[in-house]
Amino acid sequence: MPRCQGHYSNSFLLYLFASFFICLKALGSSMSNGLNGHYQCAETELNSTEGELFLSEAFKVILEEAVHKATDVKEKVCEWKDPDQLRDVLDLELRDHGETHQQLLQRVRDVAKHSVKTNHPRFFNQLFAGVDYHALTGRLLTETLNTSQYTYEVAPAFVLMEDVVLRKLRSLVGWAEGDGIFCPGGSMSNMYAMNVARYWAFPQAKTQGLWSVPRLAVFTSQESHYSMKKSAAFLGIGTENVYHVKVDESGRMIPEDLEAKIVHAKSQGAVPFFVNATAGSTVQGAFDPLDRIADISESNGMWMHVDAAWGGSVLFSKKHKHLVAGIERANSMTWNPHKMLMAGLQCSVILMRDTTDLLMRCHCANATYLFQQDKFYDISLDTGDKSIQCGRKVDCLKLWLMWKAVGSQGLANRVDMAFANTRYFVEKLKKREGFQLVSEPQFVNVCFWYIPPSLRGKENSADYKDKLAKVAPIIKERMVKQGSMMVGYQPLDGRVNFFRMVILSPQLTQSDLDFCLDEIERLGRDL
Amino acid sequence: MPRCQGHYSNSFLLYLFASFFICLKALGSSMSNGLNGHYQCAETELNSTEGELFLSEAFKVILEEAVHKATDVKEKVCEWKDPDQLRDVLDLELRDHGETHQQLLQRVRDVAKHSVKTNHPRFFNQLFAGVDYHALTGRLLTETLNTSQYTYEVAPAFVLMEDVVLRKLRSLVGWAEGDGIFCPGGSMSNMYAMNVARYWAFPQAKTQGLWSVPRLAVFTSQESHYSMKKSAAFLGIGTENVYHVKVDESGRMIPEDLEAKIVHAKSQGAVPFFVNATAGSTVQGAFDPLDRIADISESNGMWMHVDAAWGGSVLFSKKHKHLVAGIERANSMTWNPHKMLMAGLQCSVILMRDTTDLLMRCHCANATYLFQQDKFYDISLDTGDKSIQCGRKVDCLKLWLMWKAVGSQGLANRVDMAFANTRYFVEKLKKREGFQLVSEPQFVNVCFWYIPPSLRGKENSADYKDKLAKVAPIIKERMVKQGSMMVGYQPLDGRVNFFRMVILSPQLTQSDLDFCLDEIERLGRDL
């Protein structure tokens, strides 16, 4: 670890000066508006001085409501309102005439107040949580610069930056060369993989459609993400051509069943072309055995994709990257730095081992108004035609700035800390009466039942499962209405509703984890 | 117009107080760090006080570099660097160890400096430009709240808000009922339309794939957006099953040729199921004759989609909405408020007339971990399964806040102003020697050649076209390298490279438009 130099005093002085400068500027603007000067007149365009002042004031509201309070453990995670109440509070209707500056600032405050605080240390509800202040800075800059990622012409810094970030991510996978692109979310990244695999196997599908190729078969585990089904439907392959491979109790794909399913599909006349392995499944956090799956993919001439949207970040950690051993043998992978790394929604990449420009060849349409061939710079920098989008948000800056801020080592620490916090939580949970693991966690998802006193020791009653199934939804309702914490639940493959605790934010403390167990007990002990 | 009240003084006092409050808080934090207190240590997580201070300082840099200077007509539109130079300046490489706070603020400044200023009054290069300060506020709040649009549980305000915004947009189309969703860009919205149309015509395609349905045919004009081809490729329909319908000189689809192409496709054994009409084509800004196309779609039992990504905003204007007369007869439309309305990238919707829940039925996959059926609230509010994405960015807030700020009337004014500025520019252009329109503009795209003195009067020379084709690229290179303005060019259907001027931002003045003509002349008169 490098030594950190004290430089607070300097930056603090700069900060003071800057504050006074803005105040003086605002004062000048106020005076020039005269005695009857109004700040903003509805239905007119703001001039730049008014606009900047509004932005500055709104930023303060955002900082207070959506950052400061939102990360304060003493504040609520959410402020539940029934939809009808919430509609009234927010006054959502859009009208002919505009509103004043003060009204708009109040709206910013109201929206923040009635939004779920995903930045809160007690938000465990999704595969994202917490706030990274550097990534957030990158996001604010991205929004302000408002450009599209398609050409070097309008996004010079971001074209180069995307390339560097993708290359660095690939190097963690073990790919010295390759390709990739940022996509709007993991489902889209998975769709890209399936489409590129199809093009690789049957390039004529791009031009002539699926009528020119045999029926295709996709393989993925029973506990893989639902985007596999969505992808198959959207790409015209059909959900019934997705073969769901059995998993073990922890949710890992059983390779022998993959082999059997491939044989089965072939016997039905389908052509197996795509295997999706999961690294970090959505519910149990399971890691499929990648090396075994790679063997099977290779021997069947199939494209192997790894949906590591959730689990990919273990690649940063020396201690935990064994979970994805073999990933370098895959053809492509999905990885969402907006999840465990906290880059902010949305930050998802599809990475590929291919060096033959498959991504571009598969997706290009050569629009002449955008990708002119007679530009004065190297047009290989116009990477937009690799995408199925036209305009494409800049998603690399937030990850890049965060990475610059904490280094690969800082990101590795983040991953290791999440595992350590999970271990802590699991040990505590195991010692508590009334808490029961669904399976031993491999990752930072902890799946467990809370069994209220009335159900303990009654595992053999006929209605035990029905009663247990109702516990998590009621506790969830109570926690949301009180705003004390948020954690998800679901049934899975014959196992009735259980909680899925997701432990990722380095901002949560052991006391937040203790609180979680206490709170579930408090909310559910009467059930 | 409502009267605006003067309330500047109050807000200014509040602002002063807030500034001092933040300074005091920072001072406290500094002191608590002790004499050796450092502001940010690389590779460690920021605590909330440090994080908020960093955010505040970074915001000031963003405001100065990406708003204040970026909108200043005296500053450059872009700061051209060759890729190798730019890589050096930005120091893009990602390393093991993190950086100090001051270094990171400098990086924010550097990225802003070397990005294209799409907010600048002389940026005419894409179908977006300018800045709306209210929309930008909505975007900053969206990023800070960092949630996903899929469930009422984690996005209560935004689920309701999306519904209101979509309903209001539909009402402008003339649809009292219907459906819709925000998508990551217009290309994706167009893909949604094609997929829903396919499901509507052949629902078995979702489950059994395209092998269960006859070969499908898509119809779109020669000057429609390239996303139609990308959609057909991605959805497994194939680019060769896209029939390109002829256009008139202004770029409008010729209905008689649509009929002929449908007959032709049928004769080849294909099933016509989808017509895409364009409202505001990308290059010429052409509006296809929607009523005629609706007649043809209806009589052939086809789904009619309107790609109004660019032109849809004319619906706000009483004066100009005749351009999309008949749009209410379509089955679906794409509309990008991030273009003419300036909502910020990305803000795109697919709107549908359907009231049978087609969008949900077509895309749903019923993930049990997300869309639990035993939630305590009305689960019809969990609209995420309408999407092909899983996590989905909140794109409604920026549009909603902007709309609240200026009202429908303000947005109408914005559209009318763009048309008026375009008229001004066209009249000026027509009076200038050496400027020649490609076609009479219907919208706010102005396509024209600049003919340098050396080529004037030589229209009949054998090499005239070859020489003219080289003019726009050279002028473009010069303007980018000098950073004086940005405007696009392209060839089109036998017409050699011409400029496409896009006039949309209400922040540009007539002097910016005069400048554009002067500048092209200045940069090109020696050619």
From TrEMBL, chains A, B:
Keywords: Decarboxylase, Lyase, Pyridoxal phosphate, Signal. One of its GO terms (molecular function) is pyridoxal phosphate binding. One of its GO terms (biological process) is heart development. Residues 1-28 form the signal peptide. InterPro entries: PyrdxlP-dep_de-COase (IPR002129), PyrdxlP-dep_Trfase (IPR015424), PyrdxlP-dep_Trfase_major (IPR015421), Pyridoxal-P_BS (IPR021115). Its cofactor is pyridoxal 5'-phosphate. The keyword Plastid does not apply. GO terms for cellular component: cytoplasm. Gene3D superfamilies: 3.90.1150.170, Type I PLP-dependent aspartate aminotransferase-like (Major domain) (3.40.640.10). The modification N6-(pyridoxal phosphate)lysine is found at residue 339. PANTHER family: CYSTEINE SULFINIC ACID DECARBOXYLASE (PTHR45677:SF8), GLUTAMATE DECARBOXYLASE-RELATED (PTHR45677). Homodimer. Belongs to the group II decarboxylase family. This is Cysteine sulfinic acid decarboxylase.
